[in-house]
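FAQ
Q: What does a multi-component entry look like?
A: The components come first, one per line:
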Amino acid sequence: MSEGSDSSGSSGNSGNAVETPPGAAGGGDRTGGGFLAAKLSDPRVREKLLLAVSAPLLALTVAFVLVCLVITATGQNPFHAFEAMFDYGTTDRSQVWIVNKAIPYYLAAVAVAIGFRMNLFNIGVDGQYQVAAFFAAVVGGALALGGFVQIPIIILTAMVVGALWAGIAGYLKAVRGVSEVITTIMLNAIAGSLIGYFLKEGRLAERNQNIVHTPDLPESSRFFTIDTGAGLIYGSVVIAIAAGIAYWYLLSRTRFGFDLRAVGVSDSAAEASGVSVKRMVIASMLISGAVAGLVGMPTLLNDTGNFGNNFPSGIGFMGIAIALLGRNHPVGMALAALLWAFLERTGGHLNFIGYYQEIIGVMQGIIVLSVVVSYELVRRWGLRRQQRIVGAELAARARKNDTVEGAV
Amino acid sequence: MKILYGMQKPDEGTITAEGEQVSFGSPSDAIARGIGMVHQHFMLADNLTVQENVVLGAEKRHGIGAAARRRILEISDAYGLGVRPDVLVEEIGVADRQRVEILKVLYRGARTLILDEPTAVLVPQEVDALFDNLRELKAEGLTVIFISHKLGEVLSVADEITVIRRGTTVASVDPTGTSPRELAELMVGSELPVPETRESTVTDVPMLQVRDLHLSGTDADGVKREVLAEIDFTIHRGEVLGIAGVEGNGQAELVEAVMGMRDPDGGAITVDGADLSHASTRRRREHGIGYIPEDRHRHGLLLTAPLWENRMLGHITERPNSRGQRLTLSDAKADTERIVREYDVRTPGINVTAASLSGGNQQKLIFGREMSHTPKVLIAAHPTRGVDVGAQAQIWDQIREARREGLAVLLISADLDELIGLSDSLRVMYRGRLVAEADPATITPEQLGGAMTGETTGRLGGDDIDAPGAPGAGTGPARDSGEEDAR
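Then the predicted structure of the entire assembly, as tokens:
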């Protein structure tokens, strides 16, 4: 829960966000000052750190300069805007709001990232979570079993429905070779129609003034909340944290994760090594869809208690941006999700004090672009640099050997 | 070489071209100075014609129409390249493609040509034709830099030889006064290891049996055709079976069928008594098939992953890489250290990416990985392609070592000397069939070459070696060492 107070930083956040990824699940390095100093004197660690820091720094500088230019171009003062955003975004109430908002964003990002790690572009998270949340809401609304049984049933329903919906695209890709980009985006449209069909009075929904929604979940099926004094943090933050840990463990510590990443790096090498690429495509789409199924849970279990025609949409697409921003890293994506929520929170406020609200959209776009571009640049530069260092080191070693031989 | 062509910048030192000191920031600078490069891997667009490929990127010189065409034919005639401008590149063979590459460079006005391992993909007859082209170029006053691992070729075509080892010039020699052995020693940096007398380690225990294997595939035009037919062989414990053949005659498909990457239409594959005809690649690997792929970048390595992850690739289900579903990273890393040490992989550490190693060191890592899981069968496809002489010698030693330890080795190579030097028996593959067999102790590269083009079939070399006093086993070692020295 401590992320709540950590989320304070404005753009500084994303700096930390991305510092960690190359260290891949490192994080244990910070045990003591002396140890750290010792580590820093190791050239290889320094090298790693240099690479890790240069990309986010470059991205932030570029994004900051560009945003300043845009705001100045609208005839307003950029620095005042940043100050106002920072002040407003760090109030207690804002922090609670930001954390709650970031939960579904993070889950969506994890769902997208699972695909990204094996070069699958699951654009369909949006449709997957909506279909999943809808049927989970229907099931939840129809039962009255008491929270301990019913909440797991609702969550499980959402995961299964999300997995099946994504699995259609996975199956088509594996068996018929249809691009998952096309199928998932089409399934998004189909998902909309499917929900539209069932979300009618007399079918699976009821009307409450202007809003048509599924029957309310019983009170016992509401998820717990955490009272911070300044507001309630959704208990579903636990789901997000669990999903993040599971994502990390699955990918970096299991055979399945290794196979998945191998396919992502080189499907031909993975195939030759004994991975069934087709099976991996289906499996990863199923998992991605199951996680996508969770995206609607914070809203359903902690907020609305039903699925109505005002259920939030478009979170799947934000997940893509956040996964890109967080470099598919579990911690990076968490910080990116918080940054996204922070920008949304402060956007309204900017409008209130006389700035154009659209500036926030521009900022989000600029941040994603500059992060993606600068990471690619730094990655290439790092690869070249490493090749050069390896070459130099080997040449030095060879020279030493030669002189030793010569001496003998 | 990359520096000469402007793809990389030197840290220090100078380049002088035609009396002028120059520095290249990009390949186009190099071309402007009349230096052009023919890459080892062709850079041609298959679905464009020869002419289109040549003018692509050089449209400014003579446009893309009749003038360009005239110039192409002019160059082609002047140097005897025999290029047909209107044919699609996908329709022409490897040797012709290479000539197109050379023409491309000449078209851009190059006076100095860099050829990187140009003969790796050619059969002996094509190599001779290439050398004729090169002499033609030389006669016209052009300069050719010919980069090769094959000493015989260098000696026959070059006027001056510079030996480079580990990034430094070791020696410059005159080909007329140098023997292949001396050259090889310069390249390896020490006296070549004398190959020990070769005694047969072949047993009568069959390890890998392939029975009547058939495979068909659909080509680019959607036509179904036979890729492999009636493939039938047995490799015993301690035996090396070599497969010779011009590339593209089904060798790659044979390997893929044995490895389980393609499902055969008919026939059986058995390893140590276990029927694996339709098993998955992973099951085959777990059953003890080690695999050294032809294209290590595409099939053997995760280039952007660290060495220790590459060590796990292909053996992820086995110790020390995993226990159950869980990876055991520290064991895998420790074992990577061991492979790096035992197989002399030259690297500063196991955390660097596979891409930063040289080809030879990548291959040593792959070899070490495959040998670390007590394989029964080793499939080695072009194991020494694109690796330096030192690594080559080491890999040959390791294949012999593997054979001594009782592995059954299927060796596929385009290098006839390698095949003859390492194999216990030889087969020739032509158009998806094993058309001829030969005893490596008595066969010559020329005889093999004849069978590779489909001219001769059946048992090779039997009748001319009928002379008394030449039993196969006796000549084996001598030939072995002879071939060894030739590199």
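Q: Is there any commentary attached?
A: Sometimes. For this entry: Chain A has one domain: 3-9+43-407.
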